[in-house]
Amino acid sequence: xxxxxxxxxxxxxxHHLVCITxxxxxxxxxxxxxxxVKFPRWKHFSQGRRCNRWxxxxxxxxxPRFGWTSLCPVLLADQxxxxxxxxxARQPVTExxxxxxHENRPHPDYIVECKESDHGYIDGQVVTLDYGYPDEDxxxxxxxxxxxxxxxxxx
Length: 155
Prior knowledge:
alpha+beta, six-stranded antiparallel β-sheet, globular, disordered N terminus
């Protein structure tokens, strides 16, 4: 990824917002103050939108049904996947904390990668920041799997 930063504000340190842009494979993330805003990259537009839509669905539909507490909160997301807004997490996560996080298995392993960059701290707890799926086949397979637990309602 390529971080870029701009310091905005009126000269008073407590009013400064740090704007950092991170370019992932499928999405661009703009970290602005307490928010992280995810947009699909033009190069992988449909996959980026699918990642945003799956994170929205995971947060709104599957997280409450399974009781997952380790996903980064989605504050705003449109149904088409053009924008997704999350709380901005503190990074980096220590290797020790990440190992403990995965040992506790707060959600199925296949939802996330074990990369430190895909995790952060919110309110002192490790959370998963990137849980989007770029492939339609992956999304369909996950829905089938989750419905196997008795959740028949389609999002």
